[in-house]
Design goal:
The complex is a heterodimer. Chain A has one domain. The longest helix of chain A is centred in the middle third of the chain and has 30 residues. The radius of gyration of chain A is 19 Å and the shape is elongated. In chain A, helix 9 runs antiparallel to helix 10. Chain A is built from ten helices and no strands. Helix content of chain A is 86%, strand content 0%. By secondary structure, chain A is an all-alpha fold. Chain B is α/β, with parallel strands linked by helices. Chain B has a single domain, classed as 3-Layer(aba) Sandwich (Rossmann fold). In chain B, 30% of the residues lie in helices and 24% in strands. Chain B has six helices and nine strands. In chain B, the strands form two sheets. Chain B has a five-stranded parallel beta sheet with strand order 6-7-8-3-9, with helices on both faces. In chain B, a hairpin with a 2-residue loop joins strand 1 and strand 2. In chain B, helix 4 packs across helix 5. The longest helix of chain B has 16 residues. Chain B is globular and about 45 Å long. Classes of the chains: A mainly alpha, B alpha/beta.
Chain lengths: 235, 226
């Protein structure tokens, strides 16, 4: 009988589970557009605070632009992390996802990609405009954009691991920030570093390649890690 | 036992618990829980609030790992959340697993697709009508009453019933909570039909359900505690 049940279970392809979770989370994010827009607005406001605080020194502003945009992107993503798993845990749907016929890593991968689409991608798309404010030139803007396109998915991945580990913990959002921010450091260094290299006229492809490598490695490993963390947290 | 088509009668399965023990910190939630449920049978979990009914159901679902003992399916030890277990177990917790921002019907469709099932539009409407939510199917779950939220879960069970052997082991935590009289009788009929079809159910409830099928009772208050 188990053989028969297994035969039933194996007809459920992981990629279908990915799509089910992805479509569900995208639809939920579209329903509560406010959260997506708020995170984006937060990013814009934080970036805009720096010229006000530092004053209109174009050389200095341009110098700090990569770091400012990257730190703001990081904080904005951090704000949206509870959306990945915390609300599903609170209303009990995380139990259903864990008991889904589809493999949990596939479902988690779908959730991570959906999170990036709603939290990371808007930041990357918005970043050239922000960089332009700081006086970055077109070649530097392209590198800034590329670094965020490669880096923000990694922010969603690392964030998902942190979110899974802090499920159901009281005061979890601060713990989540403390857990995740140090892990964001390599991405920050490579991301902001790429733009800085472009600013001094060095080829930025080394840093971008490293970001790409982190992204590929993360894509292979993170869904499984998140699935394990979710199972532990639900126990 | 592969689907060779030789046998038409529903497959006979047994779910057994073997000396399950669960501890939280130094407190023993339950200890020495053993029982056997076969196809077409139901197990009623009884016990006062806090006696561990939810924990036991979560253990049976594979969500919580027992500190000792094992859950067996057809005599073989089940690995928690293994594929065949996820294929067999349908868990309806005391939270309703509904998304506030989705309508009743959308929640139903999502729950089914997570279970690996599809239901046609007429089948969905039929199920929603049977649970009395046809008029309210487009209302966001946040605007539904507690009882109506429970009824969305009943609609899910109704549609899952047709998908045997997929999700044929129902693990239900206080399914009659917040349900009115007609809801309870609807639920009773639903369980009876499920058991008649050779399904299995473990139900934590305070109510006396009038089921024709053989039911076992497990009283968690009566277990020896240390």
């Amino acid at each position: 009988m188990i053989a028969r049940q297994t035969a039933v279970a194996t007809t459920f392809a992981p990629e279908h589970g990915f799509l089910v979770a992805f479509a569900r989370d995208v639809r939920l994010a579209v329903r509560s557009k406010g959260e997506v827009i708020q995170a984006l607005a937060f990013f814009v406001v934080v970036v805009s605070l720096f010229p006000l605080a530092i004053g209109p020194e174009s050389v200095l502003l341009k110098r700090i632009a990569p770091g400012v945009v990257w730190v703001a992107a990081l904080l904005s993503v951090l704000l949206t992390l509870p959306r990945i798993l915390a609300s599903d845990y609170a209303d009990g749907t995380l139990d259903q996802l864990a008991l889904s016929v589809y493999p949990l890593p596939a479902i988690m991968a779908g959730k991570i990609v959906a999170h990036w689409l709603m939290a990371g991608l808007p930041l990357a798309l918005m970043s050239p405009l922000r960089g332009f404010q700081f006086g970055l030139e077109s070649r530097e803007l392209v590198v800034l954009y590329a670094s965020l396109m490669l880096g923000t998915p990694v922010l969603s991945m690392i964030g998902a691991i942190g979110a899974a580990l802090t499920i159901g913990v009281r005061g979890g959002s601060i713990l989540l920030a403390l857990l995740v921010l140090p892990l964001y450091i390599p991405v920050l260094i490579f991301g902001a570093g790429a733009v800085e290299q472009a600013m001094v006229g060095i080829d930025a492809s080394a840093n971008l390649s490293l970001l790409g490598a982190i992204l590929l490695l993360g894509g292979l490993v993170v869904p499984f890690a998140v699935a394990v963390a979710v199972k532990i947290s639900l126990d | 036992m592969m689907a060779s088509g030789a046998s038409v009668s529903p497959a006979i399965h047994t779910l057994a618990a073997n000396g399950l023990r669960l501890e939280r910190g130094s407190r023993s939630i339950f200890d020495g829980v053993s029982f056997t449920v076969g196809s077409g049978q139901a197990l009623m979990l009884r016990g006062a609030n806090g006696s561990g009914k939810t924990s036991l159901l979560r253990t049976l679902a594979g969500l919580t790992l027992p500190d000792a003992g094992a859950v067996m399916w057809d005599g073989a030890v089940l690995k928690p959340l293994a594929a065949e277990w996820r294929g067999a177990a349908l868990y309806l917790g005391h939270t309703n697993a509904l998304k506030d921002d989705l309508s009743a019907q959308e929640n139903l469709v999502d729950a089914l697709s997570i279970d690996g099932m599809e239901a046609s539009q007429p089948a969905q409407l039929d199920a929603l009508e049977k649970v009395g939510l046809l008029e309210r199917r487009l209302v966001l779950a946040r605007r539904l009453s507690q009882g109506q939220k429970r009824r969305v879960g009943l609609a899910r069970l109704l549609l899952a019933r047709a998908q045997m052997p997929l999700k044929s082991l129902w693990l239900l935590d206080e399914p009659t909570n917040a349900l009115d009289e007609s809801g309870v009788s609807l639920f009773t009929r639903l369980i009876s039909d499920h058991l008649d079809n050779g399904g299995m159910a473990c139900i934590a409830t305070h109510l006396e359900l009038k089921l024709a099928a053989p039911t076992n009772e497990l009283n968690l208050d009566a277990l020896v505690r240390n």
